[in-house]
UniProtKB/TrEMBL annotation, chain A:
This is TATA box binding protein associated factor (TAF) histone-like fold domain-containing protein. Residues 192-206 have a biased composition (Low complexity). Belongs to the TAF6 family. It holds the Pfam family TAF6_C. Keywords: Nucleus, Transcription, Transcription regulation. It comes from Somion occarium.
Automatic annotation (TrEMBL), chain B:
Pfam families: TFIID_NTD2, WD40. Transmembrane segments: none annotated. It comes from Somion occarium. WD repeats lie at residues 483-530, 531-572, 573-614, 615-656, 657-692. Its main location: nucleus. This is TFIID subunit TAF5 NTD2 domain-containing protein. Residues 135-248 form the TFIID subunit TAF5 NTD2 domain.
Length: 477, 766
């Protein structure tokens, strides 16, 4: 409304409706030689009538509680002015006006606008059948203010820091400087309609600012600060994770979150000595990854190559803080398995790559026990086949076994046993293998060959289990 | 000279009497007498009519006196006579011959073509001056000088003088258009409209669309400017300064600028201003000293007031205060409660306070009154005055804040197609209704209960009691219902208030662009009555506080009172000069307030249908309003983005509150009339302290007043603010922005919780 007003006063001197236009219309009706005086008088009159209609339409707009005039307002105005409305225009699908490219032959014409008339291909329309019913009107309720304070919830716009002078003009994002007296309404404060000046300013800033809305930036800082210690508030952290797990509209934030997680993991693992604090941080970061994967509205796949390093680093790191190590590795392997489950179909090279990394960590010499354990847990996460490939066929168990003292009880050993249990469940009534019986001799030899001395020893007490593990390996499907 | 005296003394519109006087030479005297008499009677000029009648009875009509000598006197005499007339016309209070062309045409009409050449040459400077007064350059020059004079005048007079610029600008522009100087008019507009734009944008925009003489003749606003006097209030000393300047070209202006206006051209420009002042302006000279005039008071006392104020018995009032005072006292107290109802209520309250038992069988009235008392007891008390005193420590401040500002619950409508012009909540907050541009009304149960109507296939004989009634309810159903019946956008919906907050409402009213008002039964969920009568879209509908009656406001410039059981209107409240945009009942049902596109609000006596108060001060359309629950104040909001609070008893403006940056759609008072909440198209809800004195925000306060010595240092601090003047007045307690939701409705529950509603505009929508 105010926009139109401004435009009207700007174009004041010349008039909006040009005498040339009147002449054009006259010529189209075979009236030639219309004098200039008549044309300009008619143009003035036409303009006056248009303004009359617009003024009337403005009332309908105001009573419809809108700030833009729609075609339906014009129709209503014409109706009350006893003029037949213009049929065929619908307010919910306003025609788009395009500016024609400048016409060099006749520069006096000025800019020409036209209504875009899209060609509709019936074949395509019929084939695609993309007619969607609009959702019905529904409502939500939220607290706009509680006892005079606006709660910081997603439904409310983020609090805008007060001006340096402490001016109470809280909401004015674009102060009405252009208007004299400042009495006149800008159209509602809108960030989607930036003035040219703002646009220029924005382009100078890095791309980041343009992509992330202010709300999201604020959300990001709040989220990251509430997740990590020093904030030790568990409820807050859980709330943040829940928000990450369920809230829609975070897609734009995803690259930042992924990078944040990656950096966090690197920082936590960088120092040689791992403290409990680092463990906690890693745990939270893994939770964050889990939450991101859980969120059904996020499209994670493009960022998988960035997400995997933190997971695998946590999984395979040699010296995790002892109290957290098992928990962290288990969680990481679970996440890994989830990643594979969700994305291996659409991202076929994913599982081979992970397998390769894990096998390398498991078999290649000179790795610490922590790494080996992580690799085994990772393989468990990947699946039964992977465990077989790594432990049995790849000789992972042998490698691990050779590094272990006989009779040792360590997380690595536990993990291997657990992995073997995955491979084939131990029987409920274990029957020990008879070392001396001839029937069992080939089995024991085979066991020692594939799993190494150490784990062969461990399996001796259960014949069925050992046989199961070996039989799976001997005839891989 | 004596010939035109009686006509000139009439306070009627300019040029009417001279025009008739000039015709009379050729026409028969008696018929013209009759016409003049009729004209005077129609205009209500009793005194003039009387005078004319008397002079007629004396035998010779004044017109004959004039016509008589003109045939005999020599041309030299005639020239002298005309010269006197034309010169006289520049004196205040006298009507003039319109311009030189009428003089000439009159002389042609007299005949004697031989002498015309001599005549014109002998008219000399007098006639030439008038012919030259048509020169568009004069108006430019005159207005420029006037503006310079006003801006150069002393600080104490400037607020008084400023309002004079606008009517003179308008008349100059209209003159130029009417004389066919379109280009000159456009140039004049482009040059000088900028300084007037902040205060008069709507009118200016409208005027800028006029380009041809016929437009001026047909346009309503232009004709109002032409035919009515524009009232300006001025102090005595200011007025004499103005007169002095108009006559002498000096006095009152700033030093060093006195020379520019002395020349011949300046004199003609001044003459042009003088003509407008004489013909179209009315000065309301007060004895109050000029310093007491605040910057905003002109809004109430200047403008085309005479038609805005209802005329009583032939007397023309230019002062809204005088009109309001003449209408006497109003009964603004609460509505009386019948004694037996009061007793019954007290009894029930007493009993229920002892044993919390089932209310049992009570009438709706008793339930409502009982609930009212309970609400009053449990109400959250809002006391903004606490905020101003206890702002010192943060903790204390927060506590005061929570006492001053209500809790606000926002209901946001999503996926609204073309728009939701209205939303409302029932008083017991069990239902929400919204009217849509797509011509339907939608109901929601806010408690999540299913909305079931009655089945239509039942025998009335089978209904024996409440149980059988329950049986014919529809099966299933959902928590929302669509009410279809209107054939145009629905502009307002209202729940019936009979049950108060105790019982869910039984009826819903809706009004629409199809010029009908519809009554919906919430038992059957169907349309039960249609009220036709308005000729044009109905903008607003409102129940009376006790139900049964309701009022509508329409584009046909009337408000009407209806009873639900009658198909035609009971009263028609006519008098507004433009659309009636909103209508509200006084809490005691005795009065009805209407807000209109003629920039005024009026208060009507519901029973008698007469206007009892007029509230002038908004500088644009009055879009919404609200009565304070104590019945003493009326808050109105306009398209000028201001909220005015009026003292209904005296009709005076208590204060003006600004801060919104787009149209204000809804207003609501808290139950103890201390806090006003407003919502609007700028996507904000704002809370205002209704009781504080208001005024401009304290920081920008110092800008205009650097007179005192101590103002110096503040001035240094406030320098930055000069570029960005804050329009928020100091009584704005809080602003709560929403994301993208224009607030269509603001409402307080009886326990002082604030509910607001609006449709969410998705960013893709244009």
């Amino acid at each position: 409304m105010s926009k139109q007003k401004a435009r009207a006063t700007n174009a004041q001197l010349t008039g909006l409706y040009k005498p040339e236009a009147v002449k054009d219309v006259a010529e189209s009706l075979n009236i030639t030689g219309l004098s200039d005086a008549i044309a300009s008088a008619l143009a003035s009159d036409v303009e006056y009538r248009i303004h009359q209609v617009v003024e009337e339409a403005g009332r309908f707009m105001r009573h419809a509680r809108r700030t833009t005039i729609t075609t339906s307002d014009i129709d209503q105005a014409l109706r009350v002015l006893n003029i037949e409305p213009l049929y065929g225009h619908f307010p919910h699908n306003p025609p788009t006006f395009r500016r024609a490219p400048p016409f060099p032959q006749a520069p006096s014409v000025g800019t020409v606008y036209f209504v875009e008339d899209e060609e509709i291909d019936f074949d395509r329309v019929i084939r695609e059948e993309k007619i969607t019913m609009p959702k019905g009107v529904n409502w939500t309720a939220h607290w706009l203010a509680v006892e005079g304070v606006q709660p910081l919830i997603p439904e409310n716009p983020p609090a805008i820091p007060r001006d340096i002078e402490g001016e109470p003009s809280g909401i004015k994002r674009e102060p009405s400087t252009a208007r004299p007296g400042g009495l006149f309404p800008p159209t509602p404060p809108s960030s989607d309609r930036p003035s040219p000046m703002q646009g220029a300013k924005k382009q100078q800033q890095p791309l980041v600012k343009q992509v992330l809305s202010r709300e999201l930036q604020l959300y990001y800082t709040r989220l990251t600060s509430s997740l990590l210690p020093p904030s030790s508030d568990d409820t807050k952290r859980n709330a943040a994770l829940a928000s990450l797990r369920n809230d829609a509209g975070l897609q734009a934030l995803l690259p930042y979150l992924v990078r944040w997680v990656g950096e966090g993991v690197v920082n936590a693992l960088k120092g040689g000595v791992q403290t409990d604090n680092d463990g906690r941080v890693l745990g939270v970061l893994l939770d964050v990854i889990g939450a991101i994967l859980d969120n059904p509205t996020l499209f994670v796949e493009p960022y998988l190559h960035q997400l995997l390093p933190p997971i695998l680093s946590t999984l395979l790191h040699s010296t995790l803080p002892p109290t957290y190590a098992t928990y962290l590795r288990t969680t990481a392997s679970q996440i890994l398995s989830r990643v594979l489950r969700q994305h291996s179909t659409t991202y076929p090279s994913l599982s081979p790559r992970i397998m390769k990394t894990l096998l390398l960590a498991l078999i290649s010499p000179g790795k610490s026990k922590g790494t080996r354990e992580g690799a085994i847990r990772g393989l468990m996460g990947v699946g039964k086949e992977a465990v077989r490939k790594g432990l049995v066929e790849g000789g992972g168990a042998k490698v691990v076994g050779s590094e272990c003292m006989p009779g040792e009880q360590s997380p690595v050993v536990d993990s291997v046993i657990a992995a073997l249990k995955v491979l084939h469940p131990p029987s409920s009534h274990p029957l020990p293998l008879n070392t001396y019986a001839d029937t069992d001799q080939p089995l024991i030899t085979q066991l020692q060959e594939t799993l190494g001395e150490f784990f062969a020893e461990q399996l001796l007490f259960d014949r069925d289990w050992a046989a199961g593990i070996l039989s799976g390996s001997s005839e891989p499907s | 000279m004596s010939a035109i005296t009686p006509a000139a003394s009439t306070p009627g519109p300019e040029a009417a009497s001279p025009a008739t006087a000039s015709q009379d030479a050729n026409a028969s005297a008696s018929s013209i007498d009759r016409q003049i008499l009729e004209y005077l009677r129609a205009r209500g000029h009793k005194a003039a009519e009387q005078a004319l009648l008397e002079s007629l009875e004396q035998g010779g009509t004044p017109d004959e006196n004039k016509a008589g000598p003109s045939s005999t006197i020599s041309t030299d005499d005639l020239v002298k006579k005309l010269a006197i007339i034309t010169q006289k016309s520049t004196k205040p209070g006298d009507s003039s011959l319109k311009d030189a062309s009428t003089v000439l045409s009159e002389m042609v009409a007299i005949g004697n073509s031989v002498n015309i050449q001599n005549l014109v040459s002998s008219i000399g400077n007098v006639g030439a001056e008038d012919i030259l007064s048509l020169d568009p350059g004069d108006k430019q020059e005159g207005y420029r000088e006037l503006e310079a004079w006003v801006e150069g005048s002393l600080d104490m007079y400037r607020p008084e003088f400023r309002p004079i610029l606008f009517p003179i600008f308008v008349h100059f522009y209209l003159d130029l258009i009417q004389h066919g100087f379109k280009d000159a008019a456009l140039k004049f507009f482009a040059d000088y409209s900028a300084s007037l734009a902040p205060a008069h944008s709507a009118t200016l925009h409208h005027l800028s669309t006029l380009h041809l003489p016929t437009h001026v003749q047909n346009d309503e606003l232009a004709q109002r400017f032409r035919n009515e006097k524009y009232t300006i209030r001025m102090s005595r000393s200011g007025f004499s300064l103005l007169i002095g300047w108009l006559n002498e070209g000096i006095g009152g202006e700033s030093l060093g600028s006195g020379v520019g206006f002395a020349g011949e051209k300046g004199k003609r420009g001044r003459g042009a201003i003088m003509r407008v002042v004489n013909n179209h302006l009315k000065f309301d000279v007060t004895s109050a000293p000029g310093t007491s005039v605040s910057a905003e008071s002109w809004e109430e006392s200047s403008g085309l007031l005479s038609s805005l104020i209802p005329q009583t018995a032939g007397s023309t009032t230019y002062d809204p205060m005088a009109f309001n005072a003449a209408k006497g006292q109003l009964k603004l107290g609460p509505a009386p409660v019948p004694e037996d109802l009061q007793h019954e209520t007290e009894r029930v309250v007493r009993e229920q306070s002892m044993v919390d038992r089932d209310p049992g069988a009570q009438t709706v009235d008793v339930k409502r009154e009982v609930e009212k008392i309970r609400d009053a007891r449990k109400r959250i008390r809002l006391d903004p005055s606490a905020l101003s005193t206890a702002n010192l420590s943060a903790a204390h401040g927060a506590a005061a804040r929570s006492r001053a500002i209500p809790s606000i619950c926002a209901y946001t409508l999503h996926d609204v197609g073309e728009g939701a012009p209205c939303v409302t909540f029932s008083q017991d907050t069990s239902l929400m209704a919204a009217g849509f541009s797509e011509s339907y009304v939608r109901l929601w149960s806010l408690k999540g209960e299913k909305l079931k109507g009655l089945r239509s296939d039942f025998q009335t004989s089978s209904i024996t009691g409440a149980k059988s009634l329950r049986k014919i309810r529809e099966k299933g159903g959902s928590t929302t219902r669509k009410l279809i019946g209107h054939s145009g956008p629905v502009y307002s919906v209202a729940f019936d208030p009979v049950g108060g907050s105790a019982v869910p409402p039984k009826y819903l009213l809706s009004c629409s662009a199809d010029a009908t008002t519809r009554l919906w039964s919430l038992d059957t969920m169907t349309n039960v009555a249609v009220y036709r009568g308005h000729q044009n879209p109905v903008w607003d509908v409102q129940w009376s506080p006790m139900g049964v009656y309701f009022a509508t406001a329409s584009r046909d410039r009337t408000a009407r009172l209806w009873s639900t059981d009658r198909a035609s209107a009971l009263r028609i409240y006519a008098g507004h000069l433009s659309d009636v945009d909103c209508v509200r009942f006084h809490p005691n049902s005795l009065y009805l307030a209407t807000g209109s596109s003629d920039w005024t609000a009026r208060l009507w006596d519901v029973q008698r249908g007469s206007c009892v108060r007029v509230f002038i001060g908004h500088q644009n359309i009055v879009s919404t309003m609200a009565f304070s629950p104590d019945g003493k104040y009326l808050a109105t909001a306009g398209e000028d983005l201001a909220i005015n609070i009026w003292d209904i008893g005296s009709g005076r403006r208590v204060k003006k509150m600004t801060g919104h940056t787009a149209s204000i759609y809804s207003l609501a008072w808290s139950a103890e009339s201390s806090v006003l909440v407003s919502g609007g198209a700028d996507w904000t809800v704002r809370c205002w302290d209704a009781k504080s004195s208001g005024g401009p925000a304290s920081k920008s306060n110092q800008n205009g007043m650097i007179v005192n010595g101590y103002g110096g240092e503040e001035n240094g601090i406030t320098k930055e603010h000069d570029e960005l003047p804050s329009i928020e007045t100091s009584d704005l307690l809080a602003t709560f922005p929403t994301k993208r939701t224009p607030i269509v409705n603001v409402q307080f529950t009886p326990r002082n919780l604030c509910l607001v509603a609006g449709p969410y505009l998705s960013p893709e929508q244009r």
